[in-house]
Amino acid sequence: MQNHRDYWYTSSDGLRLYARQYGPSDAERTIICIPGLTRNSADFAPLCEHLAGDFRIFAVDLRGRGNSDYDSKPENYHPGTYALDIIALLDQLDLNTAILIGTSLGGLVSIVLAATAADRVTAAVINDIGPEANQTGLERIKAYVCNAKPVESWPEAIAKTKLSLSQEYPEFSYDDWLQFSKNLYRENSQGKPILAYDPEIAVLLQTPSTPEASDLWPLFNHISDLPLLLLRGELSDILSRECVTKMQQQMPTMQFIEIPNCGHAPLLSEASALAAIDHFLSDPRLARPQKLS
């Protein structure tokens, strides 16, 4: 059963971008969900359905993913560009501000937006990412994103997904792996599963970066007044406990929860994650008007 509506919008450079829309169109508050590097709007379905009674929600496919246009310039696959795309969505919706929920790369985009366009962000939920990332986890992600090989069948797609991510989700059942794989792949006209993202998103991962470029602490320090909830997978190899401690020191008001027996990144459908998000969204500070005047 499809519980969402299709929503299309246009980026500042003319790409046709896609989002799933949940909840009532006249809801007073709007949430924008931003997925991880290789992921798309489908990942947020359980969370969106959970929240749809009280919020209007847009779960986006970033450019180069899902139903959104692929970019002919791979150098545009960058958090700064994605942040501009979210602003384009806000402008098309005639919204001054929204609550952001970002997983991994989506969390980085949320930090960029909160630091560079603070008036457009009411609050943020950051899922398993911080201003710095463990090199071990980055190398793991780079290994499977930069060396993606085609598969011939759904059983092969499921097996490959499980091989890459079994340590991140040790409690997954076969049905869990099936659903996760169906969110990562889509069928082509021959019924064969193909990755639901542009392989060129790997270009940025293959480009050497300076320490200054990979250090997001200056941006994080600019959002000290933002209502923020941070989630971490207990087994995460991307967001370390040391990084969390430093974030808490920089932002004492930040709420934090660790999701047990889960790596990078929590699905946000876990009972503890849903309870933490519900509690965070009940903050009276998140009730300020969002419409452009």
Automatic annotation (TrEMBL):
Chain coiled-coil ranges: none
This protein's UniProt keywords: Hydrolase
Positions of the AB hydrolase-1 domain: 31-276
UniProt keyword annotation of Hydrolase present: yes
Keyword Hydrolase: yes
SUPFAM superfamilies reported in the protein's UniProt record: alpha/beta-Hydrolases
Annotated GO MF terms: hydrolase activity
Gene3D superfamilies on file: alpha/beta hydrolase
Record-linked Pfam families: Abhydrolase_6
Name by which UniProt lists this protein: Alpha/beta hydrolase
Species of provenance: Zhongshania borealis
